[in-house]
Amino acid sequence: MPELPEVETIKKDLEEKVKGKRVKRVKIKNEKCIKAPSPVEFVKRIENKIFREIQRRGKFLIVKLDSLDALIIHLKLTGQLIYFPKEGEELNYTRLIFIFDDHTQLNFADLRGFGNIWLLPEGRLSTIPALADLGPEPLGDEFTVEKFKKLLKGRKGKIKPLLMDQSFIAGIGNVYSQEALFLAGIHPERNPSKLVDEEIEKLYNNLRKILREAISYRGSSVDTYVDLEGRKGNYEQHLNVYGRKGQSCPRCGAIIRRITISGRGTYFCPRCQR
DNA sequence: CAATCGTCCTGCGGGC
DNA sequence: TGCCCGCAGGACGATT
Description:
The protein has 274 residues and is an alpha+beta fold. The chain folds into two domains: 4-132, MutM-like, N-terminal (N-terminal domain of MutM-like DNA repair proteins); 145-268, Helicase, Ruva Protein, domain 3 (Orthogonal Bundle), CATH 1.10.8. 26% of the residues lie in helices and 23% in strands. The chain has helices at residues 4-17, 39-46, 129-132, 145-152, 159-164, 174-184, 197-216; strands at 23-28, 34-36, 51-57, 60-65, 69-74, 79-84, 94-100, 105-110, 116-121, 257-261, 264-268. Helix 1 packs parallel to helix 7 and helix 6 packs across helix 7. The model has no long low-confidence stretch (mean pLDDT 90).
């Protein structure tokens, strides 16, 4: 389940491996992942174009071509981008293959098939609602603790689903929301508007810290996530609560609990997190 | 209006 | 032992 650190790792890998390369051919193995335009036009508008620039916004990857178009990729739960140094290789569940001029290739594979790809004119990226409504980048300079306090003010519901709300903050998913709350000692069901300044500061600092750390470890492979070379991330073993139901809390030794919040599994320490 | 629920999909784990 | 049901999850659309 790629979240911000995993998508950022893939973004850096793409910059290293395929940036500046010209697409010789696009092979479509399963056209369901292509949201726009039609498969025929998708191929026509990508072939012979250069992957000019790679960006990340939230969990979206944006590949700007040397035309007026950009390729937008969302991996959702099980999407993978895998680079092969030579043509002809293929993974299970491959949906798309980009073959470059130098005979290297990029596979888009997706076990569960929730991942999406769009090709849109650069000026029309906001026609993807989830991209247009994205909240601030949590690691961005403009995302200050004061801004975080303002955003939390008056919000209803529970803090954990709010952290996962992409229109609230971009890029946080089920794993890092829980980990940040653990480090901050905040119960995932707390009312966001009732967090005191000290708690907000702790959450802000730990959220940014864990995202930076996870990036430095090339992400966590809690599901099928792998990097461009098919390697797993190294941050999994540093996760404190995710998937650790019944194990003891690394901080206080209490038994980690699992509850469901908004239909999503949520792990926390009932003693440390209040 | 805002929060919650069902949906898509497939591998795998729990339970009998 | 082996099979099958149900769970898991990001984001959208429907519902309450």
